[in-house]
Amino acid sequence: MNNELYINRELSWLEFNKRVLDEAENKENPLMERIKFLSIFCSNFDEFFNVRVGSLRDMVNAGYIKEDPAGLNPKHQLKAISIKAQELSSELYRLYRSEILPELEKNNIHFLSLADLTEEDKKYLHKYFNEMVFPILTPHAVDCSRPFPHLQDKTLNMGVFLKKDTPDAERFFATVQIPSILPRMVFLPAKNKVYRIFMLEDLISMHIKNLFLGHIVISVNSYRIIRNADLTIEEEEAEDLLREIENSIKQRKWGQAVKLEVRNNAEEDLCSYLTKELDIHQRDVYYQNGPLNLSFLMDLYNLPGFDSIKDPKFIPLNKEIFKGRNIFSVIKEQDVLLHHPYDSFNPVLDFINQAAKDPKVLAIKQTLYRVSGNSPVIKSLINAAENGKQVTVLVELKARFDEEKNIIWARRLEKAGCHVIYGLVGLKTHSKITLILRKEGNSIKRYVHLSTGNYNDITAKLYTDIGLFTSNERFGQDASKIFNMLSGYSEIENLEKIILAPMFFRKAIEKLIFREMENAKKGKKAEIIIKINSLVDPGIIELLYQASQKGVQIYLIVRGVCSLKPGIPDISDNIKVKSIVGRFLEHSRIFWFYNDGDEKYFLSSADLMTRNLDRRVETFFPVLEKELKKELWEILQGNIKDNVKGKIMLSDGTYVKDNSGSEKFSIQNYLMDKKKKELK
Fold it and tell me: Total structural domains in the chain?
């Protein structure tokens, strides 16, 4: 393997998060949208350190020295990550201080420092502290009888150096956890319709002496720890997978520290003390020129009265075909494609809700990966079981950071009488599939929904995903076989339409690419367009390089991580890569192959990552109807055309704005406008 032909996965991810930060920097975005992207950047960053950096730390600790396809071993990756992440962190706070804060002030939102407070303000804050904050705080002194506490992941803390109020007293350390149950922003009484905000940590710092009576406070500063939260579950040895995951969730809060954040005005003694106590390298200390963890800024987005500095509201619309009709009648007549969030998610909810109530429905089978906190899907499934339907639900307990929520849902479903499956040993079930069996006359009719995204009514308004409704019997038979495999010991064979990972997906993709290569060798037109979230798998990348060298024209729309290098002479000069980061998270996976004029369209729950191809249950399924293919073609061409949010990847892994086209075009704006016109 030639390491020069691959980009390290982690560095590619950091480039993706930089594109998120670019949207926070983009002055064409309304101010509140810029704040939203800034907050998303911070949340993304935390998860990256929790999982990816945490995993690399585990590898280093285990003595793992194998290189990745880009030629970097775990130690080299951590060093490269640190350099790039420090750069991004500095850019984040430069943007916050030099652009975001001044713009907020222009819009009557002021963050106050201690020097900005009037006596009246101080009285208000003193009262708030004594009534709401002080009773919750617990100072933790560190000495020979009270060791340094094991602080939870992502908690915000105050580090305090003190000494007794006596001559020649020695200095000692104490820490105070800032309560996450209280809002980070304390809103002072408004003046002249101006929001005036004082940070909770600054309020605690103001009153820190109240916590250490009889002592002199030498210094106080905030700090924050990010820990390794990458769960390791020994599935093969687990007697009870649910209980094993519950135990692992508890351990997640206490993993090894992988990142320390401090204010840039923190004294060196604090950083030295914390790095020693946390056993963390100096390069993993991030000095922030502002409040730690700026993701709290998302709360500003919900302030009333600022619609003028937000994107215009968009309400997903129901397709005309569903209005006033029984959903099974519609699907029985024709396949239907839903493109969220432009098309409402309501038909998916109605599909399950109507099935729960319909006396003709005998059974509902569904996979659940991530659902919302107050999921209407879960409520409908519970209702169905209570109505006497046979309900089978695969709840994937290993969905990262949703494990706890999924355990709660699994237990509620079981209590209602649903047959709950916890996933397969060694595999995550990432496929999104619902099968409803309905008695019609003297036979049973199968209705199927397949999707690129989760059954989550909240993210369906924020992520672009595509779902397919069909009553095609071949899809129905395939769905039945898949659920038999998931719930029992049945082996999968003879699937007609739905291609399943990890059994068949890789071979299917390879076959489709090889077919284009064969056509190119014969001098025929050969093209591939793939829209996904991530492209990492070395085998698929190598095959795409081979296809490019044979003359296949390849356009890849990869929102996030891309380890392939486009535009390398004689290697990948027929490959173009684009990323779109916009108002909605581009999450749909679409695959198109020219196939000598007999064009093939597929949708999938999977990205082209080794984990999706080899270690997850995923669906890859064709779209057959001509009109639906036209919808997908419009989406693909619009993504290629997008020169507003689209960025082109260069062969070194960096991205530049797509300046092609004589007129500005945004695929997301186009599809929103199109839906609004349909409403009229």
Answer: 3
